Amino acid sequence: MMLSIRNLRVTFGERPALNGIDLSLARGRTLGVVGESGSGKSVMALAVMGLLPRTARATGRIGFDGRDILTMPERDLCALRGNRIGMIFQEPMTALNPAMRIGAQIAEGLILHQGLSRRDARAKVMHLLDMVRIPRAAERIDSFPHELSGGQRQRVGIAIALALTPDLLIADEPTTALDVTVQAQILDILDDLVAELGIALMLISHDLGVIARIADDTLVLYRGTLIEQGPTERVLRRPGHDYTRTLLDALPPRVRATLRDAP
Q: Where are the alpha helices (DSSP H) in 115-149?
């Protein structure tokens, strides 16, 4: 199992953020993590990345390829991030450096971690831009983030996360603030990458429609507590918890009917 979390608890002072989370994620599978704002989705992602703030206290186990992330020294965590675990952050405009050209931002990890020359790194960046379907990549490689659309910036974020070919990719609200057409394109890209590269994907969202599109399994969080998990089809068509039913009821009727009743 690529990722195995057991009894993960995270507190900020006396305030609990996660209450005994258990989950497993295998290579080539997509796990959807859904819940409203404040449910603990991003805290769980930061815990897996070893990026929790100093004010947080985490207990339990986050097993990644046989090692416990919670007990790793910082040097090992730095080697793990990017190389083995990549993350797509939810706000590409703030996640990207506005003063750096996008090609340089994607190439940075290749140069630092893999020791590629700038020329070889640029060639790899071109390949990555093509992979995430940036139009006219040869022209866009030297653009600044503000010169790109929201969907293109999100594609750049995906390229950065994929640059070092991680085994696990965490996508934290990757379609936030994107229009429906671009949202579908981003989800298709992620789904294709799981199939083609065999990576494990953790897709975090507050939108069950997004989760339904590509997730094999779904985990539902409410106030830091795991209240339901299982195959996505079962969770969406036969939810076992009132909160999951409430999330489904919050969807437009046509979308809700599609999720519950499609053959």
A: 118-131, 137-140
